[in-house]
Design goal:
Layout: E1 2-10, E2 13-18, E3 21-26, H1 30-36, E4 42-49, H2 57-68, E5 72-74, H3 79-98, H4 109-129, E6 135-139, H5 146-153, E7 158-162, H6 170-173, H7 179-186, E8 191-194, H8 197-211, E9 215-216, E10 219-222, E11 225-231, H9 238-242, H10 252-261, E12 265-272, H11 279-292, E13 300-307, H12 314-334, E14 342-345, H13 351-360, E15 363-366, H14 375-383, E16 391-395, H15 401-404, E17 409-411, H16 416-427, H17 431-447, H18 450-470, E18 474-475, H19 478-490, E19 494-498, H20 518-529, E20 533-538, H21 543-550, E21 556-559, E22 564-567, E23 570-573, H22 582-594, E24 600-603, E25 608-611, H23 617-634, E26 640-644, E27 648-653, H24 658-666, E28 673-678, H25 684-689, E29 695-699, E30 708-710, H26 713-724
Parallel strand pairs: 1-4, 1-6, 4-5, 6-7, 7-8, 8-11, 12-13, 12-15, 13-14, 15-16, 16-17, 18-30, 19-20, 19-28, 20-21, 28-29, 29-30
Antiparallel strand pairs: 2-3, 9-10, 10-11, 21-22, 22-23, 24-25, 25-27, 26-27
């Protein structure tokens, strides 16, 4: 049976002490509901903090034993760790920063140290339970370092990570001193999930700008691992709110809500006390609505439920004081002897009262300044399953808006006018329109509920796991490398095609700064010294540079993708090339360079290359698209080809490429062993031109025609060293 190891900051149980005994209660969160609904074919283990400080050894063992019966494994935290890791770095650094409240971000090395230590403590507990074939799913911002810690010890295990809060834009994320460590920690996962495409886009931007990892449609390739970065919007337990299993008739709070609704319209606001929720802005906007629409005085109540949170944190204390004062001001200014505009409750409600409030409320006013998803909006919609008579007013900054924007009235949470207009529209909306909007949203939420969210994430992770395991390209190491070495040794004649940039030498922003070092010269000299070998450097480099760097070696060469070839120590031109097109294209490229500081033109004998290694990737891609459009008009009816390599675009004669140069050398003689190695798209032509028995090797983890792969330049050198020793 497949095993799924779930890791989150909190376990799906709450432990309380009463009369000296421990009591276990299921947590009510949506995460537990979704994960517990997963296919029974998965044997689930859940690792997390039990939520209480347990220091006594005997008590800890008791908790471990009790929880193990439920397939739960506790991570015990000290009061200091809870203070520095959870209340500190997680909630005073990451929470405000990822929600764009950078003025509240705490930059504290002690808290960062504790965050690293506790993530490692979670790893130590995880390590005890992992075995081959397991799938791991790590959750949320408290454990962003954990995926890479697991990856380091278990390189072949499948790891998923889901972030339940926003991922900020690169310009905000880069402010964090620990940005690179956090990014690398998350990139230890194989599948990384976010609520919205915007968060996904921000993460991919950070991955590129901080670590140079480019993506193709959300897929990253790092150290021969394919990483899937995707959007998985989290749903709710729809039936729980649509048909709540409670006795609302006997609930005192439910009765009071129904009596209030009998004479007034209800506008509902439910939030945890947090500066991200936009509570003061909402109160001010409601006050403005009452002031500007006196006909609704005595007719509408804002019922505002604010659940206490982090009461010992200064910002939260100040926020509560601000809300208290605002509510008092509006109630004292507009209230009458039999009507108060705002009913303000600083507490949580029981489930019966909450679902009754959802069902009775005419409007849900959900206007966070920034929110990862906001499930309250979805709960309200589900509660209207039978009546379909409510209106949702939703902030543009809530993750849920991307799913609900065809039914909700969307507002800018900072705009009192937006919210005032939305309240007026909602109160005057015809019943038919309310029902149509609500039905649209309900249909989505029924289908994309929390069970669907969890099942889809795991399904995609499993698919990725299987693809990575069954990929056609085999890593060239261990027994596979030994087989290649044996074939090489036994061969009487060998032909070796070797790319230069990205294969023998790493990349540099200045193409002329990567002249061969002593090790490259030694390796090529060693290979060429063997009389059984014919070594061909098959490169996009110009012949002048190749001659300058490697001309003294006993190797043959193909330069500029086969425009020039060096055989028998003489260079000759491919007869298919022409250069009459070059002046017009050069003018076009010079215009591109003039508008793109940091890019430059490399002019070869019969081709032109535009390099953009040192500029913003997205700007580079934009310029490439511009260039292609202009070039199509300029060189129509000419036999030219545009090659896109690693941060370079090259224009050359279409009848010439590395593959044709490879075929030329392959057919010159009979060989027992043929090998081709390269790193980018232009080298795929080499792999395709090799004989069926040839050894094709891709440098890097991109999809390829090659049979084998190696991770990078260091592994290339190690492989060639093994062949000549």
């Amino acid at each position: 049976m497949s095993r799924l190891v779930i890791i989150s900051n909190r376990l799906p149980v709450t432990i309380n002490r009463s009369a000296g005994e421990l009591h276990y209660h299921p947590s009510a969160g949506g995460l537990a509901t979704g994960l517990n609904s997963l296919d029974e074919s998965y044997n689930k283990i859940w690792i997390g903090w039990p939520g209480v400080d347990i220091t006594d050894d005997w008590e800890r063992e008791t908790v471990k034993t009790d929880l193990a019966k439920k397939n739960l494994a506790p991570v015990f935290l000290t009061p200091q760790e809870i203070d520095l890791y959870y209340e500190g770095f997680s909630n005073k650094t990451i929470w405000p920063h990822f929600h764009y409240f950078t003025e509240y971000t705490a930059y504290n090395d002690d808290m960062w140290d504790a965050y690293q230590e506790v993530n490692y403590k979670f790893f130590q507990e995880t390590e005890k339970h992992l075995r081959d074939g397991d799938m791991v799913w790590v959750h949320d911002y408290q454990l962003m370092l954990l995926p890479q810690m697991i990856r380091d010890k278990f390189p072949n295990i499948s790891i998923g990570f889901f972030l339940h809060i926003p991922f900020p834009s690169y310009e905000v994320f880069r402010i964090l001193p620990w940005r690179k460590q956090i990014l690398d920690g998350i990139l230890g996962a194989d599948q990384i999930g976010f609520h919205t495409f915007g968060y996904m886009r921000h993460f991919l931007s950070a991955a590129y700008r901080l670590s140079g990892h480019e993506h193709q449609f959300g897929r990253l390739s790092i150290n021969e691992r394919e990483i899937n970065v995707d959007v998985f919007p989290m749903g709710i337990n729809y039936e729980k709110y649509a048909h709540p299993d409670v006795n609302a008739e006997s609930d005192k709070g439910s009765g009071e809500i129904r009596r209030l609704h009998a004479s007034r319209k209800i506008v509902l606001s439910v939030d945890r006390l947090d500066y991200t929720k936009g509570i003061p802005q909402r109160v001010r906007a409601f006050g403005q609505f009452i002031r500007n629409n006196p006909s609704y005085v005595g007719q509408v109540n804002l019922i505002m439920i604010v659940v206490p949170s982090r009461a010992n944190v200064d910002q939260y204390q100040s926020l509560k004081h601000e809300v208290d004062v605002l509510v008092s001001q509006i109630n004292s200014e507009y209230g009458t002897f039999d009507w108060m505009p705002i009913h303000y409750y600083y507490r949580s409600l029981n489930f019966a009262s909450l679902t009754t409030l959802y069902k009775e409320a005419d409007i849900a006013l959900i206007t966070p300044l920034r929110d990862g998803m906001n499930l309250v909006a979805k709960e309200y919609i589900a509660a209207k399953e039978d009546t379909k008579d409510g209106v949702l007013i939703l902030s543009e900054m809530a993750g849920a808006v991307h799913e609900l924007n065809d039914g909700a009235i969307t507002v800018n949470p900072q705009s009192n006018k937006d919210i005032e207009d939305a309240l007026l529209e909602a109160l005057e909306m015809p019943a038919e329109e309310k029902a149509a909007r609500m039905t649209n949203m309900q249909e989505k939420l029924k289908r994309y509920d929390v069970k669907h969210w969890a099942a889809t994430f795991i399904k995609e992770q499993k698919k990725l796991k299987d693809n990575n395991r069954m990929g056609s390209t085999t890593h060239l190491s261990g027994d596979t490398l030994t087989q290649v070495q044996d074939s090489y040794t036994k061969a009487g004649s060998r032909l070796l095609f070797i790319d230069y940039d990205g294969t023998l030498m790493g990349f540099n922003e200045d193409p002329q700064a990567v002249s061969p070092d002593d090790e490259v010269i030694s390796l090529l000299s060693g290979l060429a010294a063997d009389p059984k070998n014919n070594v061909v450097i098959n490169s996009g480099r110009d012949k002048g540079t190749l001659e300058k760097w490697l001309g003294h070696l006993d190797v043959e060469m193909a330069a500029e993708h086969g425009v020039w070839m060096k055989e028998d120590n003489k260079w000759h031109l491919n007869p298919n090339v022409v250069d009459g097109w070059m002046p017009k294209v050069r003018d076009l490229l010079e215009n591109l360079v003039a508008r793109t500081p940091g890019s430059f033109i490399e002019e070869k004998d019969y081709s032109l290359a535009w390099h953009y290694r040192s500029i913003d990737r997205d700007l580079g891609h934009k310029r490439v698209r511009e260039f292609r459009d202009m070039l199509a008009y300029l060189i129509q009816n000419q036999d030219l080809q545009v090659l896109e390599g690693n941060k370079v675009v090259e224009i050359k004669n279409a009848g010439v490429n590395k593959g044709k140069a490879t075929s030329h050398f392959v057919h010159k003689d009979e060989y027992d062993f043929v090998l081709g190695i390269g790193d980018d798209a232009t080298d795929e032509d080499i792999f395709k031109a090799l004989p069926e028995s040839g050894i094709s090797i891709k440098v890097g983890a991109d999809r390829t025609e090659a049979k084998y792969s190696v991770s990078g330049v260091n592994e290339v050198r190690k492989m060639f060293r093994s062949l000549i020793e």
